[in-house]
Amino acid sequence: MFMFSRKALALLMAALCTSTLSFSQAVPAPIKIAMIEGLSGPFANTGEAVFRNLIWAVERVNARGGIKLAASADSTAGNRPLAIERYDSKGQNEEALTALKSAIDDGAQFIVQGNSSATAAALIDAINKHNERVPGKRVLFLNYSAVDPILTNEKCSFWHFRFDAHADMRMTALMELLKSDKDLKKVYLIGQDYSFGHAVAQEARRQLGALRPDVELVGDELHPVGRVKDFLPYAAKIKASGAQAVITGNWGNDLTLLVKAAKEVGFEGKFYTFYGNALGAPAAIGDAGIGKVVAVADWLPNVATKQSEAFYQSFRQRFPKPADDYVHMRMQLMVESLAQAIEKAGTTDSIAVAVQLERASVTFGGQTGTMRALDHQFQQPLVVGVMDRQGAPGVKFDVEGSGYGFRVVKSIAASRAELPTTCKMQRPLE
Q1: Which fold is adopted by the domain 168-297+381-416?
Q2: Are 31-165+308-380 and 168-297+381-416 equal in CATH topology?
Q3: Distance between CA 316 and CA 248 in Å, rounded?
Q4: Domain ranges of the chain
Q5: Residues 6+ apart with CB under 8 A from 23
Q6: Can you give the C-alpha Rg of the chain in angstroms?
């Protein structure tokens, strides 16, 4: 048996402590981002698409050394990596609120979500209450897709930042194209029966009345979210109405199944969509969608710049499976904005980071976006694309291996996409 003197034992313990300290300094604690999203259920594919985009953005930040921080009250000097953790909301608000509590308990300081405006509204309310009740564990909410306008208007919050164009902004961009279609006389509105679907329908009615009062609204209905398995009855009504175009904010399977049903019943009109450029919709409608499916987005793969093409090619190299081909520029800009804000704040303190996020201005892949401090609504260019066969002029890239892509036909500058807000921001005492 080996025996150690007190002096030798003290030296050994000191060496172990030094080794442990060196290791902890070499591997700093990550900055945790919690993604709360439906990863099971009818919209699981949209949740997985989000995760691919976010993990790619996080990998890029970490590849360049992570977040550079100076020593402060809540951190040590050095670079800290970002880490993203997944929490399955199952597409339910109550599950999302349970996930929020778990994420905070797990040490997440930044919450990201977007695939439901109703869920986003619930998270905003919960985070407002949590941050007031537990100021030592405040969190920020970064929203990449929940586009009900109310979230940065009446429900605006200091703790919430939206990086997608809201529904009214997207509808305004779509109307840039629709209003010039002089042959269009009859339109059908269909959407999902929740806050976002209501917002889309309301704004579509308003803008049609203002810009195209000659167009007849021959249908206006909402359907349950994620519960309709057979859209043939809806498609039959659309065709019977004599509509020449459908306006819809549907997303995920609710959009794919709708366009499939429309194809089956022989509907030959146009689809003006918010999300018709991927997640199975182009393949579902096929040749019938050429020149007829219109989509508005913050970015499309066929934006004709070298930076855009390099951005898209690098994503496809990272995720080569055709089914994984749904890339969002705004999610990249969101993560870049967060990294920029933490570095400028020099801390992960929520108020300090929020103040810097209000001033965020980032450029990536040829796209530039800035945060509007007034309501925390990101301002960025928008594009409108029309579906065509890959190889047609302006359609270098298809989507999801479908053989169909979207040719950019309208580009809307950030200044033109910007809309006023009714937000009255309540700011915390710093």
Answers
A1: Rossmann fold (3.40.50)
A2: yes
A3: 28
A4: 31-165+308-380, 168-297+381-416
A5: none
A6: 24
Count Cβ atoms within 10 A of the Cβ of residue 388 and give its class: 0-12 exposed, 13-18 middle, 19 or more buried: buried
User: Which residues 6+ apart lie within 8 Å of 98 measured at CB?
Assistant: none
Sign of the Cα pseudo-torsion (105, 108, 109, 112, in order):
negative
Neighbours of 3 (CB within 10 A): 6
What is the rounded CA–CA span in Å between residue 430 and residue 427? 8
Query: 46-63 b/e with 16+ CB inside 10 Å = b?
Result: bbbbbebbbbbbbebbbe
- Beta strands 293-297 and 367-372, pairing class: unpaired
pLDDT digits (tens, 9 = 90+) for 84-121: 999 999 999 999 999 999 999 999 999 999 999 999 99
Write a three-state SS string for 252-314. Answer: CHHHHHHHHHHHHHCCCCEEEECCCCCCCHHHHHHHHHCCCEEEEECCCCCCCCHHHHHHHHH
The H or E element containing residue 385 is: strand 382-389
- Taking each continuous run of H as one helix and of E as one strand, the counts in the chain are 13, 17
**72 DSSP assignment:** B
Residue the block writes with tokens 């979207």: 406
Closest CA to 268 of 243, 250, 296: 243
Sign of the four-CA dihedral 121, 271, 164, 391: positive
Please give the pLDDT value at position 22.
46
Q: Which CATH fold topology does 31-165+308-380 show?
A: Rossmann fold (3.40.50)
| pLDDT tens sequence across 208-262 | 999 999 999 999 999 999 999 999 999 999 999 999 999 999 988 899 899 889 9
Per the CB < 8 A criterion, the answer to whether 200 and 225 are in contact is no
